[in-house]
Amino acid sequence: MKFNTKTIHGGQEHDKAYGAVMPPIYQTSTYAQSTPGGHKGYEYSRTHNPTRHALENALASIENGNHGLAFASGLAAIDAVIKLLSPGDEVVSTNDLYGGSYRLFTKIYEDFGIKFHFIGMENADVIESYINNNTKLIWVETPTNPMMNVIDIEATARIAKKHEVLLAVDNTFATPYLQQPLDLGADIVMHSATKYIGGHSDLVMGALAVKDDALAEKLYFIQNASGAVCGPQDSFLALRGIKTLHVRMQRHCENGRAVAEYLAAHPKIEKVYWPGFETHPNHDIAKAQMNDFGGMVSFVTKGNDFDEAIKIVENLKIFTLAESLGGVESLAGHPASMTHASIPKELREKSGVVDSLIRLSVGIEDKEDLIADLKQAIG
Ligand SMILES: *Cc1c(COP(=O)(O)O)cnc(C)c1O
Q1: Has 98 been annotated as catalytic?
Q2: DSSP annotation of 109
């Protein structure tokens, strides 16, 4: 089955009771048993729920995995991965990282004795120099948030295999429409399904997909034991989102390109970060591992003025000033004061998140309207 067909049919079946084409929302915490232990595969909804199960099968299918797991949020999914580790273990992580991931690693898990190395990963050889006997996990986010750096998943997977270290990829920005990390050698793919997977800014959810059975079993154990699962209503919405992922992504990419090109030609704009430009330092890797370049575009203004950047995001009318990304509607964010405020300024600026950086999640409206909006806001 090819990708577009998979989003609609992959891992999915019609409801066994009445043939409902969409899985019913099984709004139940528990399931009747005929005799102790005599049940139809479902006992308690933290452990299993048919609607969540339907979503998890679809997630596994679109990521070319064998197992999918859905969580209460993207961070809950990351949290489950880190719980595979023990005190004394080390993680090599992308430095230009989603702020909440950075906070989880440094403010929660460092206190539990796990050591994190935050490094630039555009050169895979650098990754290897941080690996030692304690290293258990490489955490990759690509394209990165918000600098749109691209990391070579296949090269990183070779290093991970050589040192018998797990490789997890945060695939939130790219989605499986653009890149399939498990096929490139990653062990775990992670999503904030809040973003493109859900696609309509109406839920908060996380997801994992893996190929390996033993690894999946450990993660299912953690999912049930820690309990950060998503409810059946949200599972239904995410599954519905998946069914249009490919058509939405196609338009996100088309509009992303139009917006990036408009901004690059604008006299008041200093720099545009979008992996589709040939001048992007990792363009060749992006071209090789991604099918297109996505709808996320970041830019800085000439003069790098904090107040001017704030004025631009306030002036936008069709782009909504808001955190998050990946919905059908266009959003604008100011990372230094919003998503990345939890990262110390010095560290933030080292990875390029300067005062005037603006991040756009380009939606699927008419691109002419989006460009007109940017034009009036930037002046
Ligand atoms: C939003 C996001 C997360 C966290 O997901 P939540 O659903 O908000 O918990 C992780 N990684 C990336 C790249 C994100 O954009």
Answers
A1: yes
A2: I
Q: For residue 269, which phi and psi values (nearest 5 degrees)?
A: -100, 130
Q: What angle do CA 11, 230, 40 make, to 5 degrees?
A: 60
Residue nearest to atom 1 of ligand 1 (CA): 192
User: Residue 15 in contact with residue 23, Cβ under 8 Å?
Assistant: yes
Q: What is the CATH number of the domain that holds 115?
A: 3.40.640.10
In contact, 77 and 69? CB cutoff 8 Å: yes
Residue 96: which of 221, 246, 282 has the closest Cα?
A: 282
DSSP, collapsed to helix, strand or coil, labels residue 333 as strand
The pTM of the full predicted model, rounded to 2 decimals, is 0.96
Instruction: Kindly state whether residues 230 and 147 are assigned to the same domain.
Output: yes
- What is the domain extent for residue 251? 246-378
Amino acid identity, position 320: T
Could you read off the pLDDT of 59-99 as tens digits, one per residue? 999 999 999 999 999 999 999 999 999 999 999 999 888 88
95 token code pair: 């430095």
Q: What is the DSSP string of 88-108?
A: T-EEEEESS--HHHHHIIIII
d(CA 48, CA 27): 12
pLDDT in tens, 140-162: 999 998 899 999 999 999 999 99
**Strands, sheet with 320-321, edge to edge from the N-terminal-most edge strand:** 269-273, 296-301, 358-361, 331-333, 320-321
Distance CA 138, CA 235 (A): 29
Q: In the structure, which protein residues have their CB atom closer than 6 angstroms to any atom of ligand 1?
A: 73-75, 98, 100-101, 141, 145, 170, 172-173, 192, 194-195, 204, 206
Burial pattern 240-254, b for ≥16 Cβ within 10 A else e, equals ebbeebbebbebbbe
Q: State the CB neighbour count (10 A cutoff) for residue 142.
A: 29
Domain boundary residue, one of 183, 213, 243? 243
- How many angstroms separate the alpha carbon of residue 16 from the centre of ligand 1? 34
